[in-house]
Structure formats: C-alpha cells, structure tokens
TrEMBL record:
GO MF term list: acireductone dioxygenase [iron(II)-requiring] activity
SUPFAM superfamilies: RmlC-like cupins (SSF51182)
Official protein name in the record: Acireductone dioxygenase apoprotein
Source organism superkingdom: Bacteria
C-alpha cells in the first residue's frame, strides 16, 4: 500500500498527516514541487531479469518518462535480500543527502521508503511497484530499503557526468521511522 506521512522535522514521533489515497499523495507532494504518479503497468520480477531485460520490459514507460521529464540518462537499481550487504551496497542512502540535479524514480519491483526534507517538514513516501517520483535538484532526501531489501527501480537523471551528491551529516534520517517500522 502506498502511504505518505508528513512530520515536523523536530518531532519524528508525532505525524502531522498520513495519507493513503494516490490523488491525495500526489496533491500534497505537488505542494513542495515533487511529482508523484502511479502507472498501471504489467510488473515482472526484476530479479529474474537482467538490467537490459528490465529496460526492454518497461521500454514504453522509459521512453515516455525520458521525454516528458527531460531526463535522458537511465540506470537500473536493484537490491536483493538474498545478496544484500548493507555496509557495501549503498551505505550513504540512509543518510540525508542532496543531489545537484533532478532525479526521477520509477519503482518496478518491491518497495522502499523515500524521505524528503523540505523546510521544517519531513515527507516519508512508502513507494511500491508502479510509482513514479520526481525529486527536484537540491532537495534533501534519504532512502530506506528495510533490513531485507527487495527493491528495483529505474532511475532517470539529466547528465552522465557532473552528478554530485552532498551528504548532510546531521543524523536526521536515523530519527525517523524506516521502511520496516
């Protein structure tokens, strides 16, 4: 189930708003310039396919999103609970960080929690297969994939080089509930 929970950034123990309807989630995220939509696609197990097969399976959606969002660079991110080593695989994703360019995420298998820190609010989005989330450049964010990840997404961005990530060493991500909470 999709869910959006909004918190004050100083009070992770007390949600301000909890939403589960896709239209309400999209409307609330649009207020902070974050795009959200759900595509009705025929999902397939991303863990039974190669990255090239995943791209071929979702070619129509990839082509549409690349054009509509002006994000021509695409890569596939997969985290499999069978082969996951938290220390080695994406160690900084559970730490608040900022990208210098916009990103678009199309979740194709499993689930994750994406947290966005905007002003004095934290927006945690429980993402699942079919969700598309557009995060503008400069937004502080972190991801949580749970203790036993099962997640695959197609990530879109604008450039092949020059992509910079700035880690914010403030510890805020550890104070908020993760995917398994």
């Amino acid at each position: 189930m999709n869910a959006l929970t909004v918190y004050h950034d100083l009070h992770p123990e007390c949600p301000i708003k909890m939403l589960t309807h896709l239209d309400d989630i999209a409307r609330t995220l649009s207020e902070i310039d974050v795009g959200f939509e759900h595509l009705d696609v025929i999902t397939a197990s991303a863990f039974a396919m190669t990255e090239a097969e995943i791209a071929d399976h979702y070619r129509r959606e990839i082509d549409r999103l690349k054009t509509a969002r002006h994000c021509p660079v695409v890569d596939v991110i997969r985290l499999d609970r069978q082969a996951f080593d938290r220390a080695a695989a994406y160690p900084d994703w559970r730490v608040e960080h900022v990208q210098n360019e916009p990103e678009l995420w199309f979740v194709v298998d499993g689930a994750c929690l994406l947290a966005l820190h905007a002003s004095d609010r934290v927006f945690t989005i429980h993402c699942k297969a079919g969700n598309v989330i557009a995060v503008p450049a400069g937004y502080a964010r972190w991801f949580d994939f749970g203790e036993r990840p099962h997640f695959a997404a197609i990530r879109f961005h604008a450039e092949t080089s020059g992509r910079l990530t700035k880690t914010l060493e403030n510890g805020i991500a550890g104070r908020f509930p993760g995917l398994d909470a």
